[in-house]
Amino acid sequence: MVDSLGVAVIGAGMAGKAHAAAYRTASALYSPTLPEIRLVSIGDVNERFGTLAARRFGYRQWDSSWQAIAENPEIDVVSVVIANSLHREVVEGLLAAGKHVLCEKPLSDTLVDARAMADAARSAATVAKVGFTFRRTPGIAFIRDLIHSGELGKVLHFSGRYWTDYGCDPHGPMSWRFAGEPGSGALADVGSHLAYVAEFLCGDMTSVSGGQLSTVITERPVPLGAVMGHDHAEVSDVFEPVTNDDYAAFSATFQNGVGALEVSRVAAGHANSLTFEVFCENGAASFDQRRPAEIQLFLREGRSAQNGYRQVILGPEHPYIAGGLAMDAPSVGFGQNDAFAYQARAFLEEVAGIAEADSLPRCATCDDGVHNMELLAAVARSAADNGATVSTSTIGANA
Ligand SMILES: NC(=O)c1ccc[n+]([C@@H]2O[C@H](COP(=O)([O-])OP(=O)(O)OC[C@H]3O[C@@H](n4cnc5c(N)ncnc54)[C@H](O)[C@@H]3O)[C@@H](O)[C@H]2O)c1
């Protein structure tokens, strides 16, 4: 194993800061088996965002370009956490420079680019993975365990939604999130997470139908300065068209079961509500990201007169928690930032050459990232064809 790994994060925005913090924490989780992690650089075109994040999270320097990071021999591992349309150029450039790359979801903004990235990843000598953080959520991982162990049994029906409200103010600033092809809006932004979670629990999606994509706020004011994440900002009186979806919904058939998925960025009052219920042969379970340290569980057992959903508070007996929190006692609570730390840990373990059996579950591959985008493309195709049923395998072959 190498003595140390140098780390950089490209993008100091909303999720970039979560990556930057996660690399700081990763070696303090579980047994101390990682090599020394050197926090080398935060890359961002915006000097203020980049220097602030570097200082805040203890990175040695700020770099204004991804090329500077690619050329720096002190850097081994790079997270790419910038707008989806920029992922391909940066990921390919970093792989060509011999870096290990963890790219944020969705893999890209187009399938063509995503496939090219997966090709580059397959032929690279280094590790290239995609960050689907919700697989690291202890409650979601535990529900999956209950399905796989047979306690919940075979999945029959999945109902999921990811409602957000970052787009519900029509005076909120235009940003990269509101531009792109149909399907590159809420569907790609939060639907990519929800589709990944649905397959994590129910197996592969085989077809989608009833696709609907809607843009309900059709133009937005151009901001006067740089905007981070979903922040509000001063805006000009110039408006630009919103070209992608504020809302998306579809039905799906899975390897196991059927279901419906609904995503929104205009769901006022729901800043970050990933919720689902999964119904199985022996019972059901539900999860709500607003209460990440618990799940609801119903098992058909005992007298039906006293049966029903119960609250299960997550703790050291559930995935990721034992050793994965500084104070890993029952009921201490945790949230989405912890999932980024588990993800960083899993990625660093793989890069460091720690055997899969001794590691956290590996991160998703770029091929998984392509597959996730094929599902979203199938939804967009269904929506364009009045909700027609689209087999996901046809997207794989033809899109
Ligand atoms: N896993 C999650 O839960 C999660 C959450 C939010 C965002 N994301 C993903 O993370 C990525 C970034 O989203 P965000 O919300 O952090 O975006 P953001 O708009 O908040 O931040 C993007 C940052 O990139 C910088 N930037 C722009 N062009 C650049 C370039 N060429 N080189 C370097 N830096 C550049 C910007 O100055 C900004 O600081 C997206 O792919 C998004 O889908 C994932």
TrEMBL record:
Residues 143-285 form the GFO/IDH/MocA-like oxidoreductase domain. Residues 6-132 form the Gfo/Idh/MocA-like oxidoreductase N-terminal domain. Pfam families: GFO_IDH_MocA, GFO_IDH_MocA_C3. Keywords: Oxidoreductase. InterPro entries: Gfo/Idh/MocA-like_OxRdtase_N (IPR000683), Gfo/Idh/MocA_oxidrdct_glycsds (IPR050463), GFO_IDH_MocA-like_dom (IPR055170), NAD(P)-bd_dom_sf (IPR036291). It comes from the Bacteria. The keyword Oxidoreductase applies. Gene3D superfamilies: Dihydrodipicolinate Reductase, domain 2, NAD(P)-binding Rossmann-like Domain. One of its GO terms (molecular function) is oxidoreductase activity. This is Gfo/Idh/MocA family oxidoreductase. It comes from Nakamurella flavida. The lineage of its organism: Bacteria, Bacillati, Actinomycetota, Actinomycetes, Nakamurellales.
